[in-house]
Amino acid sequence: MESTMKEMRGGESVLDLSPRATVGGGVEDVYGEDCATEDQLVTPWTYSVASGYSLLRDPHHNKGLAFTETERDSHYLRGLLPPAVVTQQLQEKKMMDNIRKYQVPLQKYMAMMELQERNERLFYKLLIDNVEELLPVVYTPTVGEACQKYGSIFRRPQGLYISLKEKGKVLDVLKNWPERSIQVIVVTDGERILGLGDLGCQGMGIPVGKLSLYTALGGVRPSACLPVTIDVGTNNEELLKDEFYIGLRQRRATGQEYADLLHEFMSAVKQNYGEKVLIQFEDFANHNAFTLLAKYGTTHLVFNDDIQGTASVVLAGVVAALKLIGGTLADHKFLFLGAGEAGTGIAELIALEMSKQTKIPLEETRKKIWLVDSKGLIVNSRKDSLQHFKKPWAHDHEPVKDLLGAVKAIKPTALIGSSGVGRTFTKEIIETMTSLNEKPLIMALSNPTSQSECTAEEAYTWSQGRAIFASGSPFDPFEYKGKVFVPGQANNAYIFPGFGLGLVISGAIRVHDDMLLVASEALAKQVSEENYVKGLIYPPFTNIRKISANIAANVAAKAYELGVATRLPRPANLVKYAESCMYSPVYRSYR
Ligand SMILES: O=C([O-])CC(=O)C(=O)O
Ligand SMILES: [Mg+2]
After folding, report:
1. Which residue has the higher pLDDT, 272 or 30?
2. What contacts 570, CB < 8 A, 6 or more positions away?
3. Active-site annotation, residues
4. Which ipTM did the prediction report?
5. Cα-atom radius of gyration of the chain, to the nearest Å?
6. What's the pTM?
7. Where do transmembrane segments lie in this chain (predicted)?
8. Residue 550: burial class (beta carbons within 10 Å; 0-12, 13-18, 19+)
9. How far is the CA of 194 from the centre of ligand 2 (A)?
10. Is 479 annotated as a binding residue?
11. Is 466 annotated as a binding residue?
């Protein structure tokens, strides 16, 4: 890795990977490991941590029993640890053994969070080496339950809380965060946590989980990641009554009061971290998500994961699925259940890609895509009463009141669920899709598992093994009539870590839709013949760092092409460069 960096920079070693001992035996950590930003390369800023007892309690530097004899001497650890000296591999084995013993997913989650707070490198080592097993623990679906119970399981705070109480002081709050060099912020206001609704301040589990994936899956170093929850209250009556609730005990502020706090936050971020910090909006309610993205898209580096990340991952799955269902993108007809952030975001990206491929205007390709919301099929006669983001999807058709009616009337080849409402793809709906198509494409995107529009078992059984199925939350492989079907996970976790890395390594200052298209294409290309045979339209997560490097390289290349990249000169081989930038969780030796 080091040699690649040297190569990339014309033989000049710009990174110092080994921390140096400071006066007093502490550890001086040379910032700028794992791809520093330009300014850090000029003046790498350093900080020292305490030695001895405090070192053992500093999760960024603690190695537990893996401290060597020499380190124990030079860092005042003698006697503070039992005599055994073990390897990181053995620590990993022990932790995995322990985690596997827990039967309850939330216990596994808590064990992982405790590890993150105790020994960060070991946490990431586990997550990277056991990604398929641990993703459902630190991320969807378990993170959903963790947010619901966040107050009860709360131990040490993670991330930054910005509530209405901090109005006028947001910049000071940012300055309280111990890290200066932030590259990615994931922010939520907790109003629409997965498909679970308003969880207020307890939505913090989501930015924390998303950012742990930025590091594990995308290689962004943990110290450059900042989880933020903006607390403007909650309308969740149960939480307001819950004595363990950790947030403001008031109903949600809206209108100007809401906009003002968000604006103060956005301005403070730019002032404190500059214009190259990526702000990822996560799990905002529809009515704010679209507005915030439009408002700040032209002044900040912003990305809405639910609108844009989900769109990119679903388009990749659809493109990959064409290998199994046949035809070109424009040959297909799409029907969505759910016309919110995810639904309309995906619909727009599919229409955009169709338009690019066929040169047919976007207004026309949109007509291949139909959306159903809680009031039925979105049609022209409803246009006046529709929210602005639904209007492009109002086509000419007589009113249809429900999904089953819409499937019969529209005869789609692909059915996509983004409604946040579980079990809405009924047996009759899937049977109808199967009677209309040799291989119906069924995507049940809503999270967590309880909100999935149908299960993998239902999709395969009701379609007699003919459905090409993927879901937002993970499902186990399912055997139907002697054949094992492996459902793909159509989750934005495939996209955002690599996408963000691409923005970071190119020093991009704006996000553009074309970047979403190239990310999507890069992901679709990673699906192999071996995957297709099992019915998979996504590659397994085991290869995610390679996938992320490819996505990052394509996004960065697009940033250079569009003139929004500030990191110059452009590295010649962007895939190699992206890989060389990735954080490694392997322990470092302290002199
Ligand atoms: O977090 C996930 O698993 C995917 C996502 O963004 C959502 O459901 O809001
Ligand atoms: Mg989300």
Report:
1. 272
2. 506, 560
3. 139, 210
4. 0.99
5. 24
6. 0.93
7. none
8. buried
9. 6
10. no
11. no
